[in-house]
Amino acid sequence: MGTYMLFLFLFLEYTREKESFYKWFFILASLTFPLWFLNLEGFFRWSKTLSVLIPLCFVSYIRMANNGRHQNRYPALKKQWPLWILFGVLSLNILEATITDFQMGNSFNALCGVILIITIPLPSTHWRIAKYDGHRHFGELIADLPIVWCLLYTVWNAAFVYGENPSYFASSICILTVPLLWMLIKKRSDLWLMGRIYTLGIHILIRSSYDIFTPVMDSSAWFNPQVHTVWGMLNLGLHILYVGYWFMKYRNKDYVMKYSAKAYGN
């Protein structure tokens, strides 16, 4: 797990800084598509793979369009509508897992997914592409997601994987933990979403092409149905507390105006 987390962390560093790397990597990686037929089973696996890798290529081109190096290229991607598409993709990915949770009878955790979708900050006030980080032009995808929301997403998604396919739970812990560590080391909580997108993308790509995780990180023996039920109940309690806080906060007009101004800055 430690080796895989180090790999993911270095991967994030490259995809943040190297345009030539993130521009071509996932497009070329899509050529592994024939291998997916050998490793993906069921609608959820296919929809998850496609709904992660295709938008990830889109993210890379949005970043290139807005990193300040290509003034006359990709003009359509300089507008705000691409951020709304990414917002929809994030919501869709949470919804996919939420529906699966409901189908498996994990109602407590499924309700957490509903709350997460409702409380995602809107792109019009909280999302942007930063051309310059103060040192270099990276074209970073910035999302002012509250740290509490990121933590709740992490425990919700971990509980989902624990119930849906516990054999991959250990590897999922890696891809959920690294974006949190990355944003803490960078002291940039607004980078969490970009970290989550790229770690999930590389994980899905590897898993769809060849299953290296079951031989080296099989965690199926970790599953306990009682733990799973209690975990879902605890998650729901935390999410209910958060949605109450969220409702009160967004009634504060000063807060909304503050982030509306921030969203249109660099």
What is the beta-strand fraction?
under 5%
The structural domain count equals: 1
Q: Could you tell me how far the N terminus lies from the C terminus, measured between alpha carbons in angstroms?
A: 36 Å
Number of strands: 2
Instruction: Provide mean pLDDT, rounded.
Output: 86
Inertia-based shape: globular
List the total number of helices.
13
What does the radius of gyration come to?
18 Å
Question: What structural class results from the helix and strand content?
Answer: mainly alpha
Topology pattern, helix = H, strand = E: HHHHHHHEEHHHHHH
Largest β-sheet summary: 2 strands, antiparallel
Major sheet strand order: 1-2
Report the uncertain regions: 259-266
Percent in helix: over 70%
Structural description of this entry:
With 266 residues, the protein is mostly helical. The chain has one domain (2-263). The chain contains 13 helices and two strands, in the order H-H-H-H-H-H-H-E-E-H-H-H-H-H-H. A two-stranded antiparallel sheet has the order 1-2. It is globular and about 55 Å long. It starts with a helix and ends with a helix.
Describe how the helices and strands are arranged.
Layout lengths: L1 H16 L1 H11 L3 H7 L2 H24 L15 H23 L3 H12 L4 H4 E4 L9 E4 L3 H18 L4 H18 L5 H18 L3 H5 L7 H25 L3 H11 L3
Antiparallel strand pairs: 1-2
Helix pairs in contact: 1-9, 1-10, 2-4, 4-5, 4-10, 5-6, 5-8, 6-8, 6-12, 8-9, 8-12, 9-10
